[in-house]
Specification:
Length: about 70
C-alpha cells in the first residue's frame, strides 16, 4: 500500500453526508436535499398511476362480490 492511509469510517460517513466542502452558503446545503427529486418522481408517479388504477377497481369489485358497500378509509 506504499504508506497510503485510508480514511476511517467516521470521515467517510461525514463526507457522504456533507459532500459540499468549503461552502458557507446554507442554501447550497438545502439544495442538496432535492437532488434526487426528479428521478424519484419519474419512478413513483407511473407506479402510483398503475397501482391505483388497478387497485381501486379491484377492491370495489371484491367488496361488491362479497356484498359489502365500499367505504372511504377502509
Amino acid at each position: 500500500m506504499n504508506g497510503l492511509k485510508l480514511p476511517g469510517v467516521w470521515k467517510t460517513l461525514v463526507d457522504a453526508v456533507n459532500p459540499v466542502k468549503g461552502s458557507s452558503s446554507n442554501g447550497q446545503n438545502y439544495r442538496m436535499l432535492w437532488t434526487g427529486l426528479g428521478a424519484q418522481l419519474a419512478r413513483d408517479v407511473p407506479f402510483s398511476a398503475i397501482c391505483w388504477s388497478i387497485l381501486e377497481p379491484t377492491r370495489r369489485s371484491i367488496l361488491s362480490f362479497m356484498g359489502e358497500e365500499p367505504r372511504a378509509g377502509v
